């Protein structure tokens, strides 16, 4: 059974491909998630080296990637606002993908766990991006987290 982190890693791979291909060829991208051995040969490591993703786990990862990609315009508006010196279009693709996926998870999923999402995003940045990326990702997502928590407090008070 794949861990949530392993599913996020697959989702990040798919989201990266969706971004690189401007959303085209989704079926081929989904199929690329089927061969874990090839993914590991290309440097994508998982918590269990004997891990075999179920069809449902691969579908879950691809759904997360697809929904994050569909949500990218909403995410990009907020990310551009919060990252004053770095427009989303100038960010490294891996960082941009991590931020978009985390933004989607924090703002569009019912019953989000935003603090855990920030931690997972930072771990993805440590594993797959530059040495400066974890701090960059954490700094931006901390600002998103504050907005999400403030909005949740406001919504709870209004009920």
Assembly status? single chain
Determine the fraction of residues in helical runs and give it as a percent range: over 70%
Overall 3D geometry? globular
Assign the structural class, choosing from mainly alpha, mainly beta, alpha/beta, alpha+beta, or little secondary structure. Answer: mainly alpha
Main sheet characteristics = none
Query: Over the alpha carbons, how many angstroms does the gyration radius reach?
Result: 16 Å
Number of strands: 0
Instruction: Give the low-confidence spans.
Output: none
Helix tally equals: 8
> In CATH, what is the class of the largest domain?
Mainly Alpha
The CATH topology of the largest domain turns out to be N-utilizing Substance Protein B Homolog, Chain A
Number of domains: 2
Mean pLDDT: 84
- The rounded distance between the terminal residues' Cα atoms is 38 Å
Strand content: under 5%
Structural commentary:
- It contains eight helices and no strands.
- The protein is mainly alpha-helical.
- The protein has two domains: 1-70, no CATH class; 71-153, NusB-like (N-utilizing Substance Protein B Homolog, Chain A, Orthogonal Bundle), CATH 1.10.940.
- Helix 1 crosses helix 4 and helix 6 runs parallel beside helix 8 (133-158).
- The longest helix is centred in the last third of the chain and has 26 residues, at 133-158.
- The protein is globular, with a radius of gyration of 16 Å.
- The mean pLDDT is 84.
């Amino acid at each position: 059974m794949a861990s949530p982190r392993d599913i996020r890693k697959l989702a990040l791979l798919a989201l990266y491909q969706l971004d690189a291909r401007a959303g085209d060829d989704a079926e081929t991208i989904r199929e690329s998630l089927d061969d874990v051995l090839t993914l590991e040969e290309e440097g994508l490591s998982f918590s269990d080296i004997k891990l075999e993703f179920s069809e449902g786990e691969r579908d879950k990862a691809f759904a997360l990637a697809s929904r994050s990609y569909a949500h990218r315009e909403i995410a990009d508006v907020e990310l551009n606002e919060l990252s004053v010196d770095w427009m989303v279009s100038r960010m490294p693709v891996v960082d941009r993908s991590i931020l978009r996926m985390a933004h989607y998870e924090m703002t569009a999923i019912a019953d989000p766990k935003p603090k855990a999402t920030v931690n997972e995003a930072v771990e993805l940045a440590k594993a797959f991006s530059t040495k400066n990326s974890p701090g960059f990702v954490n700094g931006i997502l901390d600002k998103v987290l504050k907005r999400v928590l403030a909005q949740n407090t406001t919504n709870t008070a209004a009920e």
